[in-house]
């Protein structure tokens, strides 16, 4: 809807304003409402610039009538969303399935994402079916909703849960671990992920990553070392080996060796049943491998079998008071 203020007629001052509009001389018009161009796109600062750019290009395509290209841009946006969450599966429908399996999208929103993928595929090929303006506009609205959900709603909910305390999965409460309590008290957003645990069979961190559907480098391990006679926690991607001399230098020491199981067990509840959570060792000096800082999110043990915590790596470093450095062998 548009409201205009029409100026006085120019030219013949005696023109009949009630006559045929086509016979009237041209007059200036000023837009009263809406006040200026309305901003489009999600107003979410956390949306990565590359994704915001794809959305802006899709909107520009609609404005010039390139509806098929708008749908292609939306499909590219979906690929970017998956890549930003560390999902590299191909083709795209598999990546969207992982996105859904990790609980990042669900229900109707997940179905919308799949339909956006399909219309993007159709637009990229000559199918004989015309691409309508309404299709392109609807795709943009759904893409905006998807970005809002992933980059605003999910993070706000995680912050809300961090304030609320004990979590519940499928109606069953999750008993908090000390690591979870520490995060909640520090107002750090996190997500708890449950997984099956077989007491009779140890599960590697690599296998855990596959079960959770996340890239292996984002699943971290905590290794206890003895540096100059004092315990130090080293935190790194589970797929990398700890470079002990490098860890000693990062910790400000010289002599270093891995701590024996008995030494680890004496650290207390944080290492019960061989489950070491870097969040449960705030009294130990910690060193986080420099590769961790560039990850979108990381998974660490909660201090209890069958429960992982996902959080921002910057929050992990801040809460543990860790230093960072190159402490792994690649």
The profile of the biggest β sheet is: 5 strands, mixed
Shape: elongated
Query: Number of DSSP strands?
Result: 14
Output the helix-strand order.
EEHHHHHEEHEHEEEHEHEEEHEE
Radius of gyration, taken over Cα atoms and rounded to an integer in Å = 28 Å
**What is the residue-mean pLDDT, rounded to a whole number?**
79
Provide the descriptors you would attach to this structure in a database record.
10 helices; three-stranded antiparallel β-sheet; 330 residues; five-stranded mixed β-sheet; 14 strands
What report would you give on this structure?
By secondary structure, this protein is an alpha+beta fold. It contains ten helices and 14 strands. The strands form five sheets. The chain has a five-stranded mixed beta sheet with strand order 9-6-7-10-13. A hairpin with a 5-residue loop joins strand 11 and strand 12. Helix 2 packs across helix 4 and helix 3 runs antiparallel to helix 4.
Summary?
The protein has 330 residues and is α+β, with helices and mostly antiparallel strands. 39% of the residues lie in helices and 18% in strands. 30% of the residues are buried.
Strand and helix layout:
Layout: E1 3-6, E2 29-33, H1 49-63, H2 67-84, H3 92-101, H4 107-123, H5 133-164, E3 167-169, E4 172-174, H6 178-185, E5 191-194, H7 205-212, E6 220-227, E7 230-237, E8 241-242, H8 244-250, E9 256-258, H9 261-265, E10 286-289, E11 298-301, E12 307-311, H10 313-320, E13 323-325, E14 328-329
Helix pairs in contact: 1-2, 1-5, 2-4, 2-5, 3-4, 4-5
């Amino acid at each position: 809807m548009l409201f205009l203020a029409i100026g006085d007629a120019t030219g013949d001052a005696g023109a009949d304003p009630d006559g045929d509009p086509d016979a009237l001389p041209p007059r200036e018009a000023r837009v009263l409402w809406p006040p200026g161009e309305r901003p489009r796109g999600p107003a979410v600062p956390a949306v990565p610039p590359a994704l915001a750019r794809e959305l802006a290009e899709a909107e520009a395509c609609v404005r010039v009538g390139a509806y098929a290209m708008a749908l292609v841009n939306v499909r590219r946006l979906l690929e970017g969303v998956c890549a930003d969450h560390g999902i590299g599966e191909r083709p795209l429908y598999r990546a969207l399935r992982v996105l859904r399996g990790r609980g990042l999208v669900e229900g109707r929103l997940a179905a919308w994402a799949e339909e956006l993928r399909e219309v993007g595929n159709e637009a990229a090929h000559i199918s004989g079916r015309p691409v309508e303006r309404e299709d392109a506009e609807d795709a943009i609205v759904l893409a905006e909703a998807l970005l809002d959900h992933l980059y605003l709603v999910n993070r706000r909910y995680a912050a809300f849960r961090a304030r609320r305390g004990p979590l519940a999965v499928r109606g069953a409460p999750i008993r908090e671990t000390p690591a979870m309590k520490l995060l909640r008290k520090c107002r750090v957003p996190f997500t708890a992920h449950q997984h099956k645990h077989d007491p009779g069979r140890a599960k590697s961190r690599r296998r855990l990553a596959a079960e959770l559907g996340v890239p292996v480098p984002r699943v971290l391990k905590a290794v206890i070392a003895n540096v100059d006679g004092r315990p130090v926690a080293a935190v790194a991607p589970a797929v990398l080996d700890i470079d002990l001399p490098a860890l000693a230098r990062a910790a400000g020491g010289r002599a270093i060796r891995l701590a024996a199981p008995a030494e680890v067990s004496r650290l207390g509840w944080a290492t019960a049943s061989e489950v070491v959570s870097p969040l449960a060792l705030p009294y130990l000096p910690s060193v986080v491998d420099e590769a961790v800082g560039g990850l979108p999110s990381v998974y660490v043990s909660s201090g209890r079998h069958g429960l992982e915590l996902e959080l921002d790596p910057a929050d992990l470093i801040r809460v543990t008071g860790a230093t960072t450095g190159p402490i792994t062998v690649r």
